[in-house]
Amino acid sequence: MEKEMVKVDNVSIRFRLQTDRISSIKETIVALIKGKLKYREFWALNDVSFSVNKGEVMGIVGHNGAGKSTVLKIISGIMKPTKGKVTLGGNVVPMLELGSGFDYDLTGRENVFLNGAILGYSKEFLYSKYDEILAFSELGEFIDQPIRNYSSGMLMRLAFSIATVVNPEILICDEVLAVGDERFQAKSRKRMMELMGGGTTVLFVSHNIDQIREMSNRVVWLDHGRVKMIGEPEEVCAAYREWLNRPEG
Amino acid sequence: MYGSEKFSLIGYVKYLSRYKFLIEQLVSRDFKTKYKRSVLGVFWSFLNPLLMMCVQYAVFSKLIMRGGGIEHYAMYLLTGIVIFNGFNDCCNQSMRAVVGNSSLITKVYVPKFIYPASKVCSASVNMLLAMIPLLIVAVINKLWPCLPWLLIPVGLAMMIIFTMGMGLLLSSLMVFFRDIEFLWGVMSMVWMYGTPIIYSMDLLPEILQKVEIFNPLYHYITFIRTLVIGRAWPDWQQYAWCLGFAAVMFAVGAFVFHKTEDKFIFYI
């Protein structure tokens, strides 16, 4: 049997929605005295279980607010589930939002190291891969400019290059395949394919059903925080598409 | 696997060493952005405390206190100022560390204590840099370097551990109650005037002198003053107070932070 790289076991997560957002001591005390500190509970994920084997590409589909991003955040360790647990068989590189660790006053070069450190790369690794990152990003001499002067395309190219220079065991992507101009998109897609071919386990979320069908081995369909269907891409995508185009009412 | 990390001191230290490179990067980021586009750059870290000292010395020694009969009043005042400012700087920066990094905390998994810890590190580096002009002023005042000076890092280290506890506590409280920022502004002012920085202990009424025993900063400042101005070895009680406060504060801060960190993401 193939090695399970990601195992999501009966994961549920509860959000507490306050009727009004209370974030000061006075308001809390007043609310406590009045007995009004009540929350409306909302289970963003409800008893979700699935596992991903080594080398598999798992696509996740679902309507807006179905809990796709929440699942990815729990797997990356950003959120802790209220119930259930996640077991991982290797290191995770999350690409939830490219360049979220950038500091706009620093140069591209300085950001390579800052962002790399945030993603958990070691110093030696970054020094040895620096040229590769620079080459892939195609930034050339602009690398020594503060990145606040960059265009958004340049920023994304740099972020993508830093994030994908590793060969992670588990890669988690949230709608990040549309980076830069068409040529760079083709290049980044090729890089993603390389990663997937190299034994990396991938979990990715996309609203582009064709892309999901084309790239993944298996698909999970989330609906209101529950797993509605899990299986072959063709099958799940067809069912999901049918559900999307269902007659209203 | 997440959800199984047990709280332990050794665990935190191990964490720290694993994330050394990240802390290094975050600290160097703080310095680079702080001094970006300033002509003198890092030199300000020396110059700023020195200029502050001049102003405060002029105000307190020449205009108001006239020294109050304290020997080496300039040095007495300056040591207090450097230590207190270092402490205050640490607290102010680490307080905003979690809230200010919300965009990162919601996107990448990094142990959250890294953020206040890196702020305490950068503020501590600043304080270490400020020690250099302090020691220069000491030499100008004919307080020659001596063996007890070697213990200055020990005193500072104990204070930094104490401050780390404060930073962890403040940064996690800040997530839930943004009022802390304003409350702390008032509290730190009370703390400053309540600590014998510009005046000596003798000036206080007897009751307040007894209360002062429970003021951690009084002990840290006295520790450094004993070394720099007294040029003597501190006695064991001074070690005990400094270590005790550091241990208790760090434990409290780490405990509160650990208990609350999983909820941060819902509030930032």
Describe the protein's topology:
The complex is a heterodimer of chains A (249) and B (268).
Chain A: E1 4-18, H1 25-34, E2 39-53, E3 57-62, H2 68-75, E4 83-88, E5 92-95, H3 108-118, H4 123-137, H5 152-163, E6 170-174, H6 182-197, E7 201-205, H7 209-215, E8 218-223, E9 226-231, H8 233-244
Parallel strand pairs in A: 3-7, 3-8, 5-6, 6-7
Antiparallel strand pairs in A: 1-2, 1-4, 8-9
Helix pairs in contact in A: 3-4, 3-5, 4-5, 7-8
Chain B: H1 9-18, H2 20-35, H3 44-64, H4 73-95, H5 97-100, H6 102-105, H7 114-140, H8 152-176, H9 180-194, H10 206-212, H11 216-228, H12 236-260, H13 264-267
Helix pairs in contact in B: 2-7, 3-4, 3-7, 4-7, 4-8, 4-9, 4-11, 7-8, 8-11, 8-12, 11-12
Features:
heterodimer; A: 249 residues; alpha/beta; Rossmann fold; six-stranded mixed β-sheet; 8 helices; 27% strand; B: 268 residues; mainly alpha; globular; disordered N terminus
Number of helices of chain B: 13
Low-confidence spans of chain A: none
Largest sheet of chain A: 6 strands, mixed
Protein structure class of chain A: alpha/beta
Largest sheet, spatial ordering of strands of chain A: 5-6-7-3-8-9
Sketch the topology of chain A as an H/E string, one letter per element: EHEEHEEHHHEHEHEEH
Q: Mean pLDDT across all residues of chain A, rounded?
A: 84
Q: Tell me the name of the CATH class of chain A.
A: Alpha Beta
Query: Can you tell me the overall shape of chain A?
Result: globular
Q: Which percent range describes the beta-strand content of chain B?
A: under 5%
Q: Characterize the largest beta sheet of chain B: strand count, sense, and whether it forms a barrel.
A: none
Distance between the termini of chain B: 24 Å
- Fraction of helical residues of chain B: over 70%
> How large a portion of the residues of chain A is in β-strands, by DSSP E?
25-35%
Cα-atom Rg of chain A, whole angstroms?
A: 21 Å
Assembly form of the protein: heterodimer
Number of helices of chain A: 8
Structural class of chain B: mainly alpha
Q: Using DSSP, what is the number of strands of chain B?
A: 0
